[in-house]
Amino acid sequence: MIRKSVTMGDVARELGVSTVSVSKALTGKEGVSEAVREMIIKKAEEMGYRYTGSKKENSGERHNIGIFVSERFIAKDAYYSRLYEKTMMMLSEQKQMGMLEIIRREMEKEGQLPALLSSGQVEGAIVLGQMSKDYLQILKESGIPLLFMDFYDENIFEDAVISDSVFGSDILTNYLINKGHKRIAFVGSIRSTSSIMDRYIGYYRAMLKSGLEIKDEWRIEDRDDEGERIRFDLPEDMPTAFVCNSDATAFDLVKRLQKDGLRVPEDVSVVAFDNFIYAEMSSPKITTYGVDTDLLARAAIRIMLEKLADPGYSVGRVLVSGTLIERKSVMPVME
How far apart are alpha carbons 27 and 202 in whole angstroms? Predict the structure, then answer.
């Protein structure tokens, strides 16, 4: 029988302290009293925990890392499934243990800690996809290292790895403007996630820079307060082009426009964000700003491992750039 190596989480559970306290004690960092430090070091030695005290020498240590995903994302959005799979695969390649827990709606509303966290099975956690501020605060107060992935929160400061949504949406909008479009709408519920808000800001900035009108009815909701997709309310004063916050939204929009008798791109042009399966499935295929999910996952893992090695390590927000991918959903406007 292979004996499982002892982790910081194991030591923390034995003593009833946080993993962060164990890490600080074993790395010689401030934040714990000498009495607590001695108690932790003694218990770690008794349990057979091996720590060299050097991040470089300790780089081969195996960690249990939780990946917490909101039920509304993993169940409804295949993009998040791909991002989760990429992260798990890369953790495995680096000999790290990734452990998924889906955060159900009732857990989030009732403030129930993830089972992986309450049982002390993980030493750090990557939170994938926006959750409520109250729930993020509960996770933060647990004391383990956290990293937000594909979102950030202005009121709860934690390191985050996100796609460069403002720049990407600016690129998409300017692409339409350079094709002669002046009447451009945005599709996305901007209060749903930080990434959708940022994509709206990129669109808004590009329109302002070009001196183009931005009508209230040209900001179109695509989901409700629970994140469920809703039927589009298309404006009476139709634009010539739409910037969509995601490929999935663009896919639905193209079908809706065609159902209403409009041709894409002959009558209306559509661009989107992500470069996921929906952009290829659509007819016509959708021009999109591709998010590099490999770089997102790789950056998230690197930062989490640094945080586990050094509890004082912090990077703020890390932006991952993407690429404009031209397909068949845009046609120039002839004046």
Answer: 43
Q: Is the pLDDT of residue 15 over 50?
A: yes
The residues, any chain, with a CB within 8 Å of residue 62's CB and separated by 6 or more, are 5, 7, 95, 96, 97
Instruction: Tell me the fold of 1-61.
Output: 434 Repressor (Amino-terminal Domain) (1.10.260)
Q: In the chain, where do the E strands start and end? A: 64-70, 97-103, 124-128, 146-149, 160-163, 184-187, 219-220, 241-244, 269-274, 287-290, 317-320, 323-325
User: What global pTM score does this model have?
Assistant: 0.79
Topology (CATH) of 64-162+293-320: Rossmann fold (3.40.50)
Give per-residue burial for 93-118: e unless 16+ CB within 10 Å, then b: ebebbbbebbbeeebbeeeeebebbe
Sorted by where each begins, the domain ranges of the chain are: 1-61, 64-162+293-320, 165-291
Q: Structurally, what CATH architecture does the domain formed by 165-291 represent?
A: 3-Layer(aba) Sandwich (3.40)
Q: What is the pLDDT of residue 29?
A: 61
* pLDDT score of 183: 98
Higher pLDDT, residue 57 or 232: 232
